[in-house]
Amino acid sequence: MRILILGADGYLGWPTTMDLAAKGHDVVAVDNYLRRTIAEDTDSEALYKTPNLIERGKIFEEVSGHKVDVEIGDLSDADFCLGLFEKYKPDAVVHYAEQPSAPYSMRGFSEAQMTLNNNLNVTFNVIWGAIQHAPECHIIKLGTMGEYGTPNIDIEEGWLEIEHKGRKDKFLFPRAAGSLYHTTKVLDTDMMWFYVRTYGLRMTDLMQGPVYGLESTEIDMDERLRTMFNYDDIFGTAVNRFLVQAVAGIPLTVYGKGGQTRGYLNLKDTLQCISLAADSPADKGELRIMNQFTEQFSVNELAERVKEAGDSLGLNVQVKSIPNPRKEMEDHYYNAAHSGLLELGLEPNFMTKEVLVDMLKLIIEHKDDISHDRIMPRVKWK
Amino acid sequence: MRILILGADGYLGWPTTMDLAAKGHDVVAVDNYLRRTIAEDTDSEALYKTPNLIERGKIFEEVSGHKVDVEIGDLSDADFCLGLFEKYKPDAVVHYAEQPSAPYSMRGFSEAQMTLNNNLNVTFNVIWGAIQHAPECHIIKLGTMGEYGTPNIDIEEGWLEIEHKGRKDKFLFPRAAGSLYHTTKVLDTDMMWFYVRTYGLRMTDLMQGPVYGLESTEIDMDERLRTMFNYDDIFGTAVNRFLVQAVAGIPLTVYGKGGQTRGYLNLKDTLQCISLAADSPADKGELRIMNQFTEQFSVNELAERVKEAGDSLGLNVQVKSIPNPRKEMEDHYYNAAHSGLLELGLEPNFMTKEVLVDMLKLIIEHKDDISHDRIMPRVKWK
Question: From the candidates B85, B162, B170, which should be mutated to test the interface with A, based on the most A CB atoms within 10 A?
C-alpha cells in the first residue's frame, strides 16, 4: 500500500520509513526538520550526526534497493499538507509530525504557542487531507501514554465504560497530561474523535510509552542509516540520559523520589506495532486506541537497570536524586492495560541487560562528544 | 474590581459589559467585530442594526453615567491580548471571545481552520496574559453545555468521580461535542485544566446552554443599547429561529424528530451568573465548573411554547419537521445537574409565555426586515 510517513526524519520516523519500505510498501517520507532546528536553537543536538532526510533516502536505496520518496515541507501549512494527500492519495498515513518535547513546550510562552499551533494544525490538516482527498485512508496517529497522566484507577486502552447512578455509557478514558506537549496530544485525541465519528474516518491512535533502543533490521545494515540519539534535557528520555551519564561518569539523575512509573517500549516494537496497525486498519468511523508499551517500571528501577548494565562494563555507575524540574507525582498507582497490540501479533523485545549494554557500547564510541551542559534540566515547570 | 470583557460586542458580551459597569466595576470592553464580519460574509446579519462597540460605550455613558473603556483588537494576536493584561492588570476576565457558530465551523475547511485557531489561541493568550501579568486574576470562561454532548448517563457539573475495578479518582466529566465549534470548547477546557493545575491559576468554566431573551435592566433604558438578535442558520438559536418563523408566517422548522433536549437560560440569568461568579472567585489552582442553565426541554416542547405564545398574538403558528442538517441524536436521555449557580444565589427567570410574547412583539416591529433566505439550514454536517 502507499503510506505517507509524517515526521519521517525523527527518532521513530526514520526507522519506520525504512521498515515499511523494506516490507514492500510504497513509502513517502515527509519532514521539515523542525526537531533538528529546535535542537540547534536550544543546544540539544544529538550525540552523533545523521544525514538529512534526502540523503538518508538515497543511502537507504543504495544499501537496500528500496526507493523512498521524500517531501520536505511544513505539514502545519494546509496547502502543503492537503497537497500531499491530493498528490499521493495514500492508503495509510503514519503521523509522527509533532513538536515532541515536553520540556520545550514548558520553556516559555513562545515555545508553548508554537507547540500548540504546530501540533494541532498538523493533526487538523491530516484529518482534512483525508476528508478531502483520501476518505478511505487509515490514519495511524502517535499519541502518548502521557495523555492519561497518573490516575488512581487502572488505565484502559483509550476508552472506559462508566456506570453512574444506574446508567451506563462508554467514553474516552479521562486524560490529564503532565506537560503542554502531552496536553496537545489530548487535544488531538478529542479533535480526532469528533471528526472520526462525524465524517466516518478510519483512525488508530497509539498511546505510546517512552521508546528506547538504536537497532532495527535496516539500521543494522549500514552505520549511515542510524537514527538520532538525544540525551539532552529537551529531547532525551530518562533512559538515554541515564545511559549517557553512566558513560560520562556522572551519577544518574533521578528526578525527585523516582517512583514515577511509565510503560516502556523497544524501538523494534514500535516498528512492529506500526506495521501491525497498518496491516489491520481501523473500521470506517472507528477511533481505535491501543496502549503501545510492553513493560512498566519506575524511574528508580530504570536507574537500577542502567547501573547493572553499566557496572557489567566496568563503568562504576552512581545514582543520585535531584530536585524534580517537573510537576508530577513521584509516588503513585500505575497499572495500564496493553493487550490490543499483543492481540494483533506484537512479539515484545524487552529491556534486557544486553539491550542496554549494546546501547552503552555505541555511546562509549562517542564518549568524547558528550556535552555535559545538555544533561542537567534547563527547563523548570514553574 | 477591574474586569476585562473579551468579546464585549456580542449578544452576551454587550449586556454583560453594561451590567458589570452598572454594578460599579471598572470595565474594559474588548472586541474585533469577528462575529459582525462573519455575519456579513455569510449573509447572516442580525434583525436590526446595533451601534459599534465604541458608539455603544459612548451611548451607555451618556444614558447611565457609567464609563466603559473600549479596546478594539484581535485577542488571538498574542501581542494585543497579553498587552491588555499588562496594561490593565485585571482582577477578573470574562472570556466570551470565540467564534460562536456551530454551523459556521462545519461549513468547510477554512471556516473550521479559523474556528480552531481563533478559539484555541484566544484562550491560550488569556491564560498566558494571566500567568505573565495578573496571576491572581479570576478568569471566567464561557464554555457550553454542548461540550458534554448527549451521554446516556446524568451530566454532572464538569467533574465526575469514577469507580473502576475497586479504585476511585475524580476526572473531568467526559465530553463529546456535536460540532467543531463545540469541540474547540472541549479543547479549551482540557488546556485550561492543564494550566490551572500547573500554574495555580483561578478559573471558572461556565457550561452554558442556549440563551434567549432581549431584556436587561440596562438594555431597557434606551433602544440604542439593545443587544443583537440573530435568527439565521449561522448565528441564530432554535428559539430565535422559531420566533421569527412565527412572525414571518413560516412553519417552525424542527430538525428531525425534535427530541433533542437542551438546558436553556434567560439573558437576565446569564448576567446574574457572570456577576455571581465574579463576586465569588475560584480558588488558586481551581478549575470551577458550573452548568449554566435553568430549565431543560426538547425542541418539540420549545416549538410548542413558541406556538402557544404566537397563537396568543393571533399569529396562527404551524410546526413542521425538516431533515436534520446536523449529525446528532434526535431522541436521547438527558438529565443535567445545575445546582452550582443556584447555590451561589441565582434566581431564575424562566421561559414564560410573557417572555416569548415580548420577544415576538419586538420582532413584529421589524417584520419587514426578515430575510427568508437566512432561515433555512444552509450548512449540512456532511
Answer: B162
**Contacts with A79 from chain B: Cβ below 8 Å:** none
Task: Look at B124 and A113 and tell me if their CB atoms are within 8 Å.
Answer: yes
Rounded distance between C-alpha atoms, residue A102 and residue A104, angstroms: 5
| A297 bridge partner residues | A262
Rounded to the nearest angstrom, the minimum Cα separation between A278 and chain B is: 27
- How far is the alpha carbon of A127 from chain B, nearest alpha carbon, in Å? 10
Q: Residue B324 contacts by C-beta under 8 Å, 6 or more apart in sequence?
A: B255, B256, B330
Q: Do B162 and A153 touch (CB under 8 A)?
A: yes
User: Which of A11, A88, A148, A181 is labelled catalytic?
Assistant: A181
* CA B4/CA B317 separation, integer angstroms: 42
- Domains in chain B (CATH in brackets) are 2-223+265-294+333-348 (3.40.50.720)
Whether A154 sits inside 8 A of B165 (CB atoms) is: yes
Residues of B labelled as active-site residues? 144, 181, 185
Lateral strand order in the sheet of B295-298 = B211-212, B261-266, B295-298
Which residues lie closer than 8 Å to A342 by C-beta, 6 or more apart?
A348
At B277, which helix (H) or strand (E)?
helix B267-279
Q: Around Cβ B193, how many Cβ atoms within 10 Å?
A: 23
Q: Is A80 part of the contact surface with chain B (CB cutoff 8 Å)?
A: no
Q: How far is B171 from chain A (nearest CA, A)?
A: 6
List all residues 6 or more positions away from A37 whose beta carbon is below 8 Å from its beta carbon: none
- Compute how many other C-beta atoms are within 10 angstroms of the C-beta atom of residue A357: 15
- What are the phi and psi torsion angles at B292 (to 5°)? -105, 85
Is A171 near chain B, with CB under 8 Å?
yes
Note whether A152 contacts B132, CB cutoff 8 Å.
no
Tens-binned pLDDT, residue by residue, of chain B (382 aa): 999 999 999 999 999 999 999 999 999 999 999 999 999 999 999 999 999 999 999 999 999 999 999 999 999 999 999 999 999 999 999 999 999 999 999 999 999 999 999 999 999 999 999 999 999 999 999 999 999 999 999 999 999 999 999 999 999 999 999 999 999 999 999 999 999 999 999 999 999 999 999 999 999 999 999 999 999 999 999 999 999 999 999 999 999 999 999 999 999 999 999 999 999 999 999 999 999 999 999 999 999 999 999 999 999 999 999 999 999 999 999 999 999 999 999 999 999 999 999 999 999 999 999 999 999 999 999 8
Nearest CB neighbour to A113, from listed B78, B171, B197: B78
Inspect the interface and report whether the beta carbons of A176 and B180 lie closer than 8 Å. no
Residue A127, all three cell numbers: 484529518
Give how far B332 is from chain A: nearest CA, Å.
Answer: 12
Q: Smallest Cα–Cα separation from A218: which of A28, A59, A344, A35? A: A59
By the 10 Å C-beta count (0-12 exposed, 13-18 middle, 19+ buried), A361 is classed as: exposed
Give the nearest chain A residue to B183 (CA atoms). Answer: A191
